[in-house]
Amino acid sequence: MINAIIVDDEQHCVNRLSGLLGQHCPSSVNILDSFNTVEDAVSGSVLLQPDLVFLDMQIHDKTGFDLLKQVSDIYFDVIFTTAYEKYAVQAFKFSAIDYLLKPVDADELKQAVAKLEQRLSKNEMSKKIDALFDNMKSTQSATKRIGIPTVSGITYIAIGDIIHCHSDINYTTLFLKDNKKITVAKTLKEFEEMLLDYNFYRVHNSHLVNLAFIKSYHKGKGGYLIMADNTEIEVSIRRKDELLKKLSR
Predict the structure, then answer these.
(1) Distance (Å, rounded) from C-alpha 66 to C-alpha 82?
(2) Mean pLDDT for the stretch of residues 83-105
């Protein structure tokens, strides 16, 4: 059983989340208490020692970050509840932190709790929070980091180090600078959604490339690319014209 607290300044949001947990996760999550200010939540977390905090991003005139900054050793897992726009959601994804968009959806809540039950990696949360802070502040894609779940935990790599990604059904291999590569149990579509705004383009059903690392394009029916690591990557016919537009900019 996961002992949790809810931190949210809107009582109807607390009621909805509590109700969904009681209905869909009764044997998984035990709600110890809820708090509607950062100060009360900090004191409550010290007193109750929760395993998990459902943390609203905006709490009156403060944020969930203000709470986290006041906790010297983050011993609990965090699932953010947020209405934040795309840039913040991307930061959560990059940092491998779970989040729920308001209004909270029952299926997404169940998935987040199930992932936590499987992981139970409280020792990784401080690293995730640090990466989240970095990504929220960073404006350069090269300095943004993405959290990659591995057998041993979470590996953080700079977006600017990714040359290209290759799909193998439900697994994706990331090819990095210095001839490194990492295979992850995530689909290529997930990486495409995360990296679309950071100079990446899906040139084929199986290939997502960092446009900054293209050495050359070779003509053909669809043609093919030579990447900085000398990998030859096929370009699909239907994606060829859009790729050439991007390369000409």
Answers:
(1) 15
(2) 73
